[in-house]
Amino acid sequence: MCGIVGAIAQRPVAAILLEGLRRLEYRGYDSAGLAVLEEGGRLNRVRTLGKVARLSEEVAANPLKGTLGIAHTRWATHGEPATHNAHPHLSHERCALVHNGIIENHETLRREQIAAGHVFTSETDTEVVVHAIHDELEQGHALIEAVRLAATRLRGAYALGVIDARDPEHLVAARQGSPLVIGVGFGEHFIASDVFALLPVTNRFIFLEEGDIAELTREGTRIWDRDGQLVERPVKTSSVAVDAAERGAYRHFMLKEIFEQPQAIADTLQGRMAGDRVLPETFGNQASELFQRIRSVTIVACGTSYHAALVARYWMEAVAGVPCQVEVASEYRYRRHVVPEQALFVTISQSGETADTLAALRQAKASGYDTTLAICNVPESSLVRESDLVFLTHAGPEIGVASTKAFMTQLVALLLLTVAIGRFHRLDAAGEARLVALLRSLPARITEVLALDGVIAVLAEQFVDKHHTLFLGRGEQYPIAMEGALKLKEISYIHAEAYPAGELKHGPLALIDDQMPVVAVAPNNGLLEKLKSNLEEVRARGGQLFVFADFQVPLEEVEGVTVIRLPETDELIDPMVFTVPLQLLAYHVAVLKGTDVDQPRNLAKSVTVE
Ligand code: HGA
How far is CA 416 from the centre of its chain? Predict the structure, then answer.
């Protein structure tokens, strides 16, 4: 959340900053701003409410020439989205700063600074940081030292980009709890919240570590670690294509990403299976040895990733025969918990920077979990670096705020994990071979389901004027119903809830009337007859049923019941197959409602703040 870009170059940087912000906009889009140091030592700041495109228009009207600058696209945590709260923040027209994160002791610092004569122009927590740095600069410290000293007074999380109007030769960056990378160019250097922002200008990156403070000049960088030691951090070359995060001919990133799922699955499976076996090193070289000892699994995640974890619980217990518990990270991290013996602790996060998930991982390590595993889409992310074992999903960049292909590849990862652990427990070689074959068939199955796009676009018309929707599933389809409900509410703003269908009569049935569409996920599995009884209960009360079922399910289209047929697969991969129509449904409802599909209101991707 919140995107930071900074540049120190021998050419004007405004265009680089604006393009970087455009590429980071998925991280926050309520306001944006940039500050460029112009000749003569004047800080030229432009800030606008709303999207980066508005900032670009504003800058086009007042071109900036400076070769040193910082920029920010905001997802507000403290202070409403408003121009005066947008970053960069300035102190006395001398120091300019952009920030991602939350300063937890901002109220105390603000009181002290007001008493010392600072005038605040925003309601953000961020502004205390720029004044604190300014005070150190006024004491005669160089910018790098001023940032270091000010940082000792901050509690909370931050990634910072800072410039001093009296020092055109330096850009300073700091990282504590929020991601930040340095881009290495020729005669120019950059900072950004992620590599995508900088791909048009470089493919060489230094990944800052927690507590690092960096000083960038045009010619080079120097980095100090949390103990104040000058350190060398490796320069890594990214193989991500510069256009990997472009929308192409698709109307929205979300639609593109839904359609990329067969490829994303194939890429995620690539190199992970041989013959009819999952390769032992799929989860790291020591994974097999560690998995042999595992007696239970705990999975912690947030949002969509949490739903993937819930599906995995069914697989882990039914297929692998290993006890599995699942919890949302924001709860887990603040709860006193019991660490099971010989337990594997698994975290799931698309970005690998999800603040709550990262904190939960640190908790788990401190409380004595045997082994930790991260399932993540971003190499070099904090989660990846801090876990014992890593599985990288190869979904490619996901830009739409509502996660689709990342979720799909997380499910693939979790099924592979079920096999990798299950073979030391309940799963025999024949079972493994069957699962491997199912996984191989998955890209083709998903492609078949994508052909339903047109049908679902028409179906979506029946949801546009509704205010609520109920999603029902049973067994491992219950988390899929939860994911369908989440997608719908995220992007169409229709209130949606998911229930395990057996729970209906314990309360939610009271909500059923002809204004409440009920979406049911009904593959042909052992729970079908039970689910059908639950659907009858809805029908009997005048509810409008929309049932996603495979061809074998004996269900008739009658008044009040619409059936959408999917190809029949195997119940082990049904969660993936039935996810797709629900994604498409949410997408088409949102398009018909005219919402901002890729950047829905109040949300942002990569939830790096608590
Ligand atoms: N707390 C700052 C930055 C917000 C942020 O990092 N969001 O992800 C603000 O509210 O401006």
Answer: 22
Atom 6 of ligand 1, residue of closest alpha carbon: 100
Residue 2 CA, closest ligand 1 atom number: 8
| CA–centroid distance, residue 157 to ligand 1 (Å) | 10
Ligand 1 centroid to residue 107 C-alpha, Å: 15
State the catalytic residues: 2, 605
Cβ atoms of 449 and 262 closer than 8 Å: no
Centre of ligand 1 from the C-alpha of residue 581, in Å: 35
Give the closest residue (by CA) to ligand 1 atom 11. Answer: 76
Average pLDDT over residues 38-57: 96
User: What CA–CA distance (Å, rounded) separates 373 from 420?
Assistant: 13
Give a three-class secondary structure readout of 49-105.
ECCHHHHHHHHHHCCCCCCEEEEEEECCCCCCCCHHHCCCEEECCCEEEEEEEEECC
Q: Is the CB of 78 under 6 A from ligand 1?
A: yes
pLDDT tens-digit map of 548-574: 998 887 877 888 889 999 988 899 999
Residue 280 — very low, low, confident or very high, per pLDDT cuts 50/70/90?
A: confident
**Which pTM value belongs to this model?**
0.90
Question: What is the edge-to-edge ordering of all strands in the sheet holding 561-566?
Answer: 495-500, 468-473, 517-522, 544-550, 561-566
